Amino acid sequence: MTVRGRLRDVTLSIPRGVTAILGANGSGKTTLLKLAARLLKPDRGSVEGPRRVGAALQNPYLGFLGPTVAEDLARTAGGRGEALKLLREAGLEYASERSPYTLSMGEARILSVLMAISWGPEAVVIDEPTSGLDGSGKRWLASLIARLGVPVLVAGHDIDFAAAVAGWAVILRDGRVRVSGDMERVLRMLPEETGLGLEPGPAVKAALERGLDPLCTARCVLGVTR
Ligand SMILES: Nc1ncnc2c1ncn2[C@@H]1O[C@H](COP(=O)(O)OP(=O)(O)OP(=O)(O)O)[C@@H](O)[C@H]1O
């Protein structure tokens, strides 16, 4: 499929499980996620697959209506009780009666992910999942993604996070798919593929340099169990 000026002749079949969409700035990751979430139509080609897709987009604040965090989440979670339970599990209950626009970036990211997953979607897309999240936020999100049980697309440049959560990786460059394959194979070729504008994160880099398993290392760092 093609989206003029943004994605060119992309043919992609996304497997079950978690897939990481990786690439440098402007490579087309957000465009691909929006197509998968049916928020954008291709100029040419088609998107097949789940229609009920939960989306946590790059700017979390754009998905909020307010007036409070709990009310926003209650809209997608099907009620205030369920919303408060989700906020408690995510460690965000203290902010439940505040305006969502007062949340820090990390808190807003957590709320937007909760809103994306809480209405029973058939698939979920998360753009820049770790942007604004500290170490404990990343661990919470990695373990949540591992338990979701529906196909998930995560897009960004955080290779360590992608390695911990995803079994399959797609690398975009200038709106085209340059690499797609199982995560371990993609990670092992990253150090040589300097033209892709991506560098392994510290955990994956250290593992590759020491001859260790990069997936296991990234999962250990984020406490993801499989
Ligand atoms: N609405 C739009 N109209 C025209 N061009 C757009 C539009 N949205 C994005 N683009 C362009 O399409 C290309 C891909 O954008 P996209 O947001 O998908 O990239 P990305 O890989 O998510 O980048 P980043 O890592 O910076 O978020 C970029 O060159 C961008 O400037």
Tell me what the structure shows.
The chain is α/β, with parallel strands linked by helices. The protein has 2 domains: 1-52 and 123-225, P-loop containing nucleotide triphosphate hydrolases (Rossmann fold), CATH 3.40.50.300; 65-120. Helix content is 38%, strand content 15%. Strand 3, helix 5 (135-147) and strand 4 (152-156) form a beta-alpha-beta unit. The longest helix has 13 residues, at 105-117. It starts with 17 loop residues before the first strand and ends with a helix. The mean pLDDT is 93. The site of adenosine-5'-triphosphate has 10 residues, from helix 1.
How do the strands and helices of this protein lay out in sequence?
Layout: E1 18-23, H1 29-36, E2 53-56, H2 69-77, H3 80-89, H4 105-117, E3 123-127, H5 135-147, E4 152-156, H6 159-165, E5 168-173, E6 176-182, H7 183-189, H8 202-210, H9 214-222
